[in-house]
Amino acid sequence: MAFANEADRRVRELGFLDRVRHLADAANPAFAAGSVLVPLAFLGASVAIGSTELLFYTHVGAGAVWFGFALIFPAVVGPTLGGLDEEASAAVTGTLVPKVVFFLVGFSLTTVLSGTVLLTPALGLGYGFSGTWSTLSLGVGWGLFAFGLAVPHRLHLSAYYETRSPDPDASRLESIEKKNLVVGLFEGAVMLAIVALMTGFRLG
């Protein structure tokens, strides 16, 4: 493929910071920075002006974006890419994945950080929820954030690097797409569980 070269293949061997810089360049540095800093800026503003209402809406809004992408990407974007020819799919993946990674990191981090502030009275803006359910929901939220970094982001990046290799393996890309679907459904189920916990819904 025209855009695949030796430098792309060597990206796999770079250190963490070098990989981040490579992805930021691929995503567009301004977009990468904005994806992380803009949602976090709402969190910072909430704390700076002492607005619990803004903090709450920041948490809900960021969580909704995170939730939506967790379902849309594997359920819609993945199958759509699978229906394209190899060169077109690789071109879209190479453009889309770096942007998605920074976008989701920014909104998922904002979600868990704002949730932490909301549920921690000692931080000054918390609602003061206490007890097992709120602690559990916060713990599950941070667990899901860590899971996102460890599994779906790695799958997206695996597809990205595979498409940029000199000889992409179509069967491996198909396998990654199937894993993305399963992982997305799992994330969606966990997010629904968090919503249920936070709204006081109980079974039995």
What is the terminal separation in angstroms?
57 Å
Mean pLDDT: 81
Shape: globular
Number of strands: 0
Oligomeric status? single chain
Share of residues in helices = over 70%
Strand content: under 5%
Structural class: mainly alpha
> How many domains would you count in the coordinates?
1
Radius of gyration: 19 Å
Q: What is the helix/strand order?
A: HHHHHHHH
Q: Number of helix segments?
A: 8
State the major sheet: none
Low-confidence segments, ≥5 residues, pLDDT <50?
Answer: 1-8
Structure description:
This protein is mainly α and 204 residues long. The chain has one domain. The protein has eight helices and no strands. Helix 3 runs antiparallel to helix 4, helix 4 packs antiparallel against helix 5 (86-118) and helix 5 (86-118) runs antiparallel to helix 7. The longest helix has 33 residues, at 86-118.
